[in-house]
Amino acid sequence: MPGETVWRRCRADRVAVLNDGAEYFAALRAALLLADREVYIIGWDIHSETLLVGPTGCVDDGLPPMLGPFLRALSEKKPELVVNILDWDFAALYAAEREWNSAEQFNSGIGGRIRFCLDDSLPLGSAQHQKIVVIDDLVAFVGGLDLTVRRWDTSQHAASNPLRVDHEGRPYPPFHDIQCMVDSDAAAALGEVARARWGAAGCAVSHAQRRSGNRWPDFVTIDGRDLMVGIARTAPQTADQPGITEVSRLFEASIATANRLIYIENQFTSANEIALALARRMTSVPSLRVLIVAPRGHSSWFESQAMQGGRRSFMSPFVAAGVTERLRILYPTSAQPQSDAAAIMVHSKVMTVDDDFLRVGSANLNNRSLGADSECDLAFEATCDEHEAFIRSVRHRLIGHFLGLEAREIASNEQDLLGFIDRHRSSGAGKKLVPIEDQNISVRAMTEFVQPIADPRRPLDLRRTARRIWTARTMIGVAGIALSLVGLMFAWQYTPLNALTEVGYVTDVISQNTQSKFAPLFAIAAFVLGGLVVFPVLVLIAATAAALGPWLGFASSLTGVLLSASLLFMIGRFMGHKRLQSLMGMRALRIQDRIVGKGVVAVALVRMVPIAPFSLVNLLAGASQLTLRDFLIGTLLGMAPGIATMAALGAQIADFARNASWSSAVLLGATIAAWIGVCLGAQFVVTWLAGRNR
């Protein structure tokens, strides 16, 4: 219903459900070649080195295969064409996976015809997660696929495919996703959605007149005709705008109509409210079966704790309702024996209800897709036999491709679909659907700690989140962590671990990676991890300067110091003043007294005269009323002079650490004297400013 479960219902003359990246990228490339006015590309991650190629891995249109060069060449070929690219201004957690200079890669030398915009308008904890491409408001694509690396695959999902490599030539496992293609009024409406997201990000919106004509490539198979399309969105609540929860309401409304079979493909299953809705419907309709296809696991420990732990909780309503015999949560594998290399990564967001309803989009079955992130899904409701046949054919094709079977074999066995899938698995077939086992997830306390941050139902309010998860169990855990940190402070100084803090040793460790282009990132990561274990920051600064040289050493050290300080500041803010004081005692109170209410100058002085370890100061500053801005400015003023001096003479530090001699000792002494001189000069300036402020 418009205004409740969807934003708008509009007509699509043609619909295609594109199975996997190769099929989508081929269709998108061909449609872009037909563009003549305006293109909107909205994504969670957009990478200029994405190979925009079809199943063969080759192109024959005379333009470059990579997305960035392709769009630049297309803009030069069509001077009237404007390409608008909106990418999420990603969280630091994803920095290692992202392209850092995307804007330059896309619009270099084009003279404004490619407009690249980073969306940083969303509240803390939210992400821009829509994946939309609109071409001249005449054809549009919506689904789970971003135009980024490590997404391309064919629907065969071979365990080994020489074409399935990333931009650096590294192979990656099989990858499955779905994108939906629509035209006519539905495409025009999606143009409005794209422009709204573009405008919300603070980018200038153009209102060019809609063109006429055909942007549908001839080779793209039309799966459905003359369908009404519902557009469902999620948008987080902000100070200026109420939240939009059409995605959530549409899930619940469509589940409530199910009578025979619900089929779901989704990357995540951690939204308990969806699990409850499914279990309730299965209880009230004994004939209803549910098949969910999801990935075997997730790439990082953080995702595993938040999402796989959530998946285990997702099962609880089904167990409580006693309906697990009519439920399957399975992952696809492409070969025998089963292995991580053969497991197909499921990234799609698809749902069918009987033969009556189909949705394809960007929304996961996790909490954040229901209220914290921006999402866009398309929903199709059957109103005639042809529409039912369309929805049926999509379901049969998708299940069949996971099993290595034709759609007609799925259709002929659908009366006992779950049993058929179980028997197929036992037959020894290479491609099959296998039960997911999450028994190896860590203890529940850690999951409860991580999940509210990684998978929030609404944008993060750190104080509210802290109150919600701060139970006796987590309190004991944090107390243990605090005692461990205090122990580490002493261990780095008074135990054999002290040998690991020698500048020469740390320099050698960092130097092992200096030939890599990721050496600065390795050094920065060392600062962040070192801060978490109270490793002496001065040792890291000296070692980084010695290993990477003056300019790179200074930039890496300063970036690492600020990132580490920011992370620990946020942890301190999350824990709060009272809890930190109760865990660390009066010393914490004395250090905080040096900081609270005194702003930038006080932080700079504490940095220059280190009255406590770097990590402890960061935690206590976060627990105070100090703003993050003042804290970082003070840290910059207090530490930059010393870092700069150490970086300028880093070679002397390395030489003395490896080959002690009179000459290297003299040079090291000069280094220390210069450092002291710079710091004293900076301290004099800051103290003078403090006196003026009084």
Description:
The protein is an alpha+beta fold. The protein has three domains: 10-215, 2-Layer Sandwich (Endonuclease, Chain A), CATH 3.30.870; 227-435, 2-Layer Sandwich (Endonuclease, Chain A), CATH 3.30.870.10; 470-693, no CATH class. It contains 26 helices and 18 strands. The strands form two sheets. The protein has a 16-stranded mixed β-sheet that branches. Helix 16 (503-511) packs across helix 25, helix 21 (586-595) crosses helix 23 and helix 25 (650-658) crosses helix 26 (662-693). The chain is globular and about 85 Å long. Mean pLDDT is 81; it is low at 439-443, 481-486, 488-492 and 689-694. This is Phospholipase. Pfam families: PLDc, VTT_dom. One of its GO terms (molecular function) is phospholipase D activity. The chain crosses the membrane at residues 470-492, 521-545, 551-574, 595-619, 631-654, 666-690.
Task: Write a compact overview of the structure shown.
The protein is α+β, with helices and mostly antiparallel strands and 694 residues long.
